[in-house]
Amino acid sequence: MKYDKLYLIKIAKENAAYFSTVSSWNQHAQKNNLPRAMTFSYYFGSWNKAKEELFPNIEVYNPFLSDYTKEDLIRFAETYKKEFTTARNWNDFSKVQGIPSSKVYIYIFSSWNNAKKVIFNNSSVRKRYYEEDELVNIALKHNKVFTTISQWTTYSKINNLPSSKVYEQRFGSWNKAKDKIFNT
Q1: What pTM value is reported for the model?
Q2: Cα separation values, 64 from 94, 101, 102, 103, 171, Å
Q3: Is 172 left (phi over 0), alpha (psi -120 to 50) or beta?
Q4: Is residue 29 within 8 Å of 41, Cβ to Cβ?
Q5: For residue 25, how many other CB atoms are within 10 A of its CB?
Q6: Residues whose CB is less than 8 angstroms from the CB of residue 64 and which lie 6 or more positions away in sequence, other chains included
Q7: Residues 156, 165 contacting (CB under 8 angstroms)
Q8: 41 neighbors 86 (Cβ within 8 angstroms)
């Protein structure tokens, strides 16, 4: 069925008690043959934008805003700088510590890399560049696990070593890297 914005506004106002969360609205809409939340999202831009426009005096819930200030987020990142490397690594760490996840940083700072730049004094967040001889020495030192891409990927993450992608980019492919390192 095709709706127009005026009709949606009328429906929302008549059923305002159920216009709180997507789940609550969709349950009510299904029972009463009303348009689902995604219809409001389509016409208004998002569910929260629909709520803001239709009920401007009601605060919209934002799951990324918390009791933590921007300064708190910066302090956590600086305190746990070693763990503040990738969003995935931070999420694993933050679950254990009970501190904000990467999603909060991304929301507040616009992106993970921007959070890193802002928090660590606008320093570059580029990954380290490895010279070919450094890569060769690392591979030789860890030759027992420098066998397959998947084995090296797991091992390199745990030991903070250059990834298989670094070797592939530097040598042209994983197999070329292995040939050059072990057959010369």
Answers
A1: 0.39
A2: 15, 9, 10, 7, 42
A3: left
A4: no
A5: 22
A6: 103, 104, 107, 108
A7: no
A8: no
pLDDT tens for each residue of the chain, 184 residues long: 678 889 999 999 999 888 888 888 999 999 999 999 889 888 888 888 888 888 887 665 555 555 678 888 888 998 998 888 888 889 899 888 888 888 888 878 778 888 888 888 754 444 567 888 889 999 999 999 999 999 998 998 888 888 898 899 889 999 999 999 988 6
Give pLDDT, residue 184: 67
Q: How many CB atoms lie within 10 A of CB 53?
A: 15
Distances (CA, A) of 16 to 1, 58, 77, 129, 135: 22, 11, 41, 57, 63
Per DSSP, the residues of 114-148 read HHHHHHTTT---PPPP--HHHHHHHHHHTTTT-SS
Whether 64 contacts 108, CB under 8 Å: yes
CA distance 15 to 51: 12
Contacts (Cβ under 8 Å, ≥6 apart) of 61: 21, 48
Q: Would you say 30 and 43 are in contact if contact means Cβ atoms under 8 Å apart?
A: no
